[in-house]
Structure formats: C-alpha cells, structure tokens
Amino acid sequence: MSAPRGSARTAPAAAADAWRLPPAWVLLVAVLLIACAEVGGASMVQFKLELSRWARGQMLARPDVHGLVGVRDVDEPVLDEALTKFDAGLRLFHLHGEGMGTVIVVAAMVTTTLVEAPALRRAILLLVTVGGAVYPVGYLVWSALIPYQGLARSRAIAEWAVWIPFGGAAIAAMWLLTAALALRLLRRRPAGAVP
Amino acid sequence: MRRPPLALVFLAVLIIAVGETAGAVMSWLRPTVERYALARIRANAAAHGLAGAPEYDEEVIARAVFTAEAGLSFLHTHAEGLGPIVLLAGTLVATVVRGARLRALLYGLLAAGALFPLGYLAYALAVLEYGRDEGVALAERWVLTPLGSAAIVALAVLAAALARARAASEPARADGAARSTPPA
C-alpha cells in the first residue's frame, strides 16, 4: 500500500497499480468499531445472566409497556419473546460491528485509490464511514430500549433514529462507489493514471 | 500491495452493495417480500403440493416463505463477507502470484466466486417457483455449488502459490544473509 493522497510520499514513489491508504480518521473509526464489536461479543457471553436479569427486572417494573397482566402463563411467553429480541439485538450489534468495520476499510481503500473526483471521493468516504459506523449502534439502541419501551416502540425508534438514516447512508455510499467504478471501467482509463 | 484488475474490484464492491441492499430489503420491505412470496406460492400451487386443506397448506406455505426469506438473509451475510474476501484474495494474487496465466485463472475463479452470494437470490426465487425441496436442490446444483467451488479452488490455489513463494524466498534469504555476513 502507498501513502494517502496529498501526502508528500505519494505519486513518484508509489507504484501505479498499488492500493492507497485511506485517511487515518477513517481507519481509526473502522478499527474502533471492530474493537467495540469484539468487546460487545465478549461481554454478551461473560455477562449474559446479569444482562438477562437486568432486562427482566426492568420489564417487570413496567407491566403496562409490555402488556403484562400478572398471570404467569400469559406473562412468561411475552417476557421470553422480549428477552430473545433483547439478546438478538446484542448479537446483531456484534455481527454488524465486525462486518461494517471491515466494509468501511475495504470501501475506503477502493475509494481512496480509484475515485478521482475529490468531492465524490470525500462524499463516499464520509457516507460509508459515518453510516457504516453508526448503523450497528442501532442494534444496541434497540436492545437497550426494549425493557423501557416495549418491542414495537423500541424497534420503531431504532429504525427511524439510526437504521434508516445511517444504514441508508452506507448503502448510498456503496452504490455511489459502484457507479464510479462502473464509469471508470467503461472509460477504460489506465489504472492509477494522473488525469 | 498491488491491486487486482478494476473489473474484479468492481465485482467485489457491487456484491457488497447488493448485500447491504438485501439487508435493507429484508428489514424495511418485509411485508412486501412476504406478499410477493405468498402470491408466487399460490400461483405455483402444484409445485408446492398445496392440497386445498387450510391446515396442511398453511404449514407448507409457512415453510416455503421461511426458506425464501432465509435465502435473502444468506444473500445479505454472504455478500458482505465474500466481497471483502474477494478483494483481499485478489490483492494477494496481484502481489504474490508471478505467472500471468495463473493470475488470470485465479482472477477468473475469484470473479465467479464473487457471484456465489447471488446464488442465494436464485435459491429464494427457485423455492417460490419450483417448490421448497426442488427449488433448493436446483439452486444448490446449478448455482451455489459451481460458484462456491470456484471460490474454494481459487483460495486453495492461492494458498499453494503463497506456500511456493515462501519456499522460493527462503533459500534466497538465507543466501543473502550468508553473503552479508563479514568474513571473520
């Protein structure tokens, strides 16, 4: 890999067909996200019982929110479903954090190397980094809100506050990058050529 | 590190974009996907073995819808995973593999492997059109197995090429070290 664009170590030293390093802040965000996801996965296993007990306690303290009626046969399936979703939210944060961290690094590397227009390059980097890093946090938000807001409302909040805007940003970034590469492929410009 | 041909990079990025979009479709458009699945299953009632008995049919329909949704879910996870793998493997091929013909073969196999996640889209659609068991078998035989095998073969050959490159560099390194050692 060669140094980022704009650095003093660029062009002459770098091979024309080498990858360029994405900006440091992008790599930092991606690595932090992967680290948080790993810690999330470990915590999920280590504190599974405590987390479950805490969520159950919070739900029992809010019977109206969860539609609990005080009859064990009715309440237990409701609590079980909410706890399963609570656990699923933590798992999905772990999975998406690790996955999106990798996608951010890969997309940023391709963007930095192959997208020539500076404005488009900056836009894709911003969208994929911010969108990709915040989107997985939506699963944590969802999990954390389930005991307080109930299943449907917590999902709606996470969806409109996090998943749609930030997930949408990451998707838009990937399609912009795909379009930029398709254009470049159609024009068949020599790789790494200075415009 | 050298980068692979633009076409392979494009394919890897396209697959990641498709994977992300599939995740969104699965979540935001779930009711629409379910409605479409139900409509296709009813339109292909014979393929699904629907008998006209509501209790039996409901179970068959539920299983078929679940399998079709699982196909979309596999598309999402495999595309997000395989895109970066193809890019990384392509980078290693570009950097480490010497012969132009072998490089071209590996790029071709990786490109085919990059399409593997789309096999799960075929899987989901085939389940709806040909019935659960027949659809799964068709997708596995004609799409998933060939494309998945291409990825596996590419990675196995790349691993062999890496081992060979390492073995070739060992004597050269030892020779270089011996030459640089000053005489006593």
Brief characterization of the structure:
With 195 residues, chain A is an all-alpha fold. Chain A contains 7 helices and no strands. In chain A, helix 4 packs parallel to helix 7.
Please, could you describe this protein's structure?
Chain A has 195 residues and is mainly alpha-helical. Chain A is 77% helix and 0% strand. Chain A has 7 helices and no strands. Chain A has helices at residues 24-46, 48-60, 63-66, 72-114, 118-134, 137-149, 151-187. The longest helix of chain A has 43 residues, at 72-114. Residues 5-13 of chain A have low confidence and may be disordered. With 184 residues, chain B is mostly helical. Chain B is 88% helix and 0% strand. Chain B is built from 7 helices and no strands. Chain B has helices spanning 6-28, 30-43, 45-48, 54-96, 100-114, 118-130, 132-180. In chain B, helix 1 (6-28) runs parallel beside helix 5 (100-114) and helix 5 (100-114) runs antiparallel to helix 7. The model of chain B has no long low-confidence stretch (mean pLDDT 92).
